[in-house]
Design brief:
Keywords: Membrane, Transmembrane, Transmembrane helix. By secondary structure, this protein is mainly alpha-helical. It contains 3 helices and no strands.
Length: about 110
């Protein structure tokens, strides 16, 4: 989408400047229209290419930051925690361990 917006904006700016320049120089209407069409076409393609380059650049930056965040999250998960003691074992909740739960007295 950035490519199309860049191409459209650049083409409209150049087309407008070409129209103003043609009117100031007193060119014929056919000449002005021809210049506008050529300018919009050329700078539309240039804007599309420029938008493509910028979009790829931003994707690389975004992927790099995403990878850094993912790596920092995995490092935090693998670090030993001070809260957990070395003797504690994880026991999954099963039907036999259900009987060991005591309810708080009201």
């Amino acid at each position: 989408m950035l490519k199309l917006r860049t191409a459209l904006c650049l083409a409209l700016i150049v087309g407008t400047l070409t129209l103003l320049n043609g009117m100031l120089q007193g060119a014929r209407l056919e000449t002005i229209i021809y210049r506008i069409i050529v300018s919009v076409a050329i700078f539309g393609f240039i804007g599309y290419g420029l938008g493509l380059i910028v979009e790829r650049f931003f994707k690389k930056i975004a992927l790099k930051k995403l990878n850094e965040k993912y790596q920092s999250d995995t490092l935090k998960e693998n670090e030993p925690s001070d809260d957990v003691t070395g003797n504690s074992e994880f026991a999954p909740f099963t039907s036999t361990s259900f009987e060991q739960i005591t309810r708080p007295k009201e």
